[in-house]
Structures are given as C-alpha cells and as structure tokens.
C-alpha cells in the first residue's frame, strides 16, 4: 500500500488483541501481513470464496483498536489481498529410502512464524552434498544426512509452531505479555540462538 508514512528501519510487529500484524515501510510503500487466529481448521477452498474487499473488511475490524499507523496503512484500498492457511509438516517417520531423500520443505516445512523458510533447505543441500562425497555408499550417505539434520530441522518446525501459537492471547494473557515482553524477548533471543545463529559445519559447506 502506498502511504504517507516515514520509512521503518526494521520490521514492526504488533500483538493486537484479536490478530497479529507486521509491516515495513520503504519509499512510501508499506509491506504488511496479518496473522488471523482461528479455532478450527478451514475447509478446503473456503478462502477462495472471499474476495479482497471482504478480507480487508474482516482484517480492518480485527485491528480497529490497534496502533494508528495500522489504520493509516488500512486506509489505502489494496490492489489485491491474498489469504493462505498456515501449516507445518509433522515429524515424518522416514526421510529416505535406499537411494532417495526428501530435503527442504518436503521433509520439514515450517510455518512462516519461524522465519526459517529457505535456510533449512540450503543447510540440507550442503550437508547432503558433503555426505555423498565422503561416505562409501549412497545408503550410508543418506543415513549420515538424516542423523545430522533431522533433530535441527524438526526443532525449527516446533519453534515456528510455538511462535505462531503465542501471537494472540486472551485479554488477561495479553496484558501479562505486554508487561513482561522486554524480559521474554531477551530470554527468547537466548533460546533461539541455535536456530538463528546456526552454521553448517565448514567441511559440509565446502563440499556444496
């Protein structure tokens, strides 16, 4: 949306009472998204029945009492609004057969809340390439790949699920969250260091 607002140095996050909102502004363009909680999973094709106008009316109502900047962004009629359900992939019993491996989202898709869309897939590729170069057989390489990647990838999926589940709380929970947010952000930074500061081992990176 084209807006008359200053640029933001960082992405801004708002924990609303009824929905979560994020935005960034650059050169008078606001890039935004909203996470709308639902008690039950939507039916297949349900989102296709609502047009952009209906979605905007719904989202505006959810954020009616939020920060004035959000109202300014919503004042601009959008060209299009997309709506997508958010899923992640539960732990799979196996990632490989004797000669075939699943990597990336096929094995461990995480929700966008994790902020780890492409990273785990790139890590998979580097580790798998290294295993195929260093192990004697394809079977051994795939076993090595799974042993090196499964725990980390599934922790990223679990992190995304946890973050998404905490974006909207009850009124009382929201009040407690707002009062304690600075402390929990510092704790969260320490708790997620493994996810966001991870580096593929040097030998694997070189092999890729």
Could you explain how this protein is built, in words?
Strands 1-2-3 form a three-stranded antiparallel β-sheet, with no helix packed on it. It has helices spanning 52-62, 68-74, 105-108, 119-134, 138-165, 171-191, 193-196, 202-207; strands spanning 12-15, 20-26, 29-35. It is built from eight helices and three strands. The chain has 208 residues and is mainly alpha-helical. Residues 204-208 have low confidence and may be disordered. It is elongated. A hairpin with a 2-residue loop joins strand 2 (20-26) and strand 3.
Features:
208 residues; mainly alpha; 3-stranded antiparallel β-sheet; 3 strands; 9% strand
Task: Supply the helix-strand structural class.
Answer: mainly alpha
Unreliable spans: 204-208
The 3D shape can be described as: elongated
Count all strands and give the number: 3
How much helical structure, as a percent, in the residues? 40-55%
Strand line-up in the sheet with most strands: 1-2-3
Encode the helix/strand succession as letters. Answer: EEEHHHHHHHH
Could you tell me the mean pLDDT? 83
Number of helices: 8
Main sheet specs: 3 strands, antiparallel
């Amino acid at each position: 949306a084209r807006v008359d607002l200053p640029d933001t140095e960082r992405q801004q996050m708002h924990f609303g009472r009824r929905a979560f909102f994020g935005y960034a502004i650059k050169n008078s363009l606001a890039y935004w998204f909203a996470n709308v909680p639902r008690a039950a999973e939507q039916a297949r094709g349900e989102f296709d029945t609502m047009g952009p106008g209906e979605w905007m009316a719904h989202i505006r109502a959810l954020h009616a009492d939020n920060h004035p900047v959000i109202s300014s962004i919503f004042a601009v009629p959008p060209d299009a609004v997309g709506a997508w359900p958010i899923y992640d992939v539960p732990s799979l019993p196996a990632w490989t057969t004797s000669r075939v491996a699943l990597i990336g989202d096929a094995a461990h898709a995480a929700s966008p809340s994790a902020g780890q869309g492409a990273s785990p897939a790139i890590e998979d590729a580097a580790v798998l390439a290294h295993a195929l170069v260093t192990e004697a057989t394809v079977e051994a390489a795939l076993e090595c790949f799974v042993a090196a990647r499964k725990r980390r990838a599934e922790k990223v999926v679990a992190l995304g699920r946890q973050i998404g589940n905490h974006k909207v709380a009850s009124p009382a929970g929201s009040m407690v969250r707002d009062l304690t947010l600075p402390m929990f952000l510092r704790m969260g930074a320490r708790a997620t260091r493994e996810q966001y500061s991870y580096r593929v081992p040097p030998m694997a990176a070189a092999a890729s």
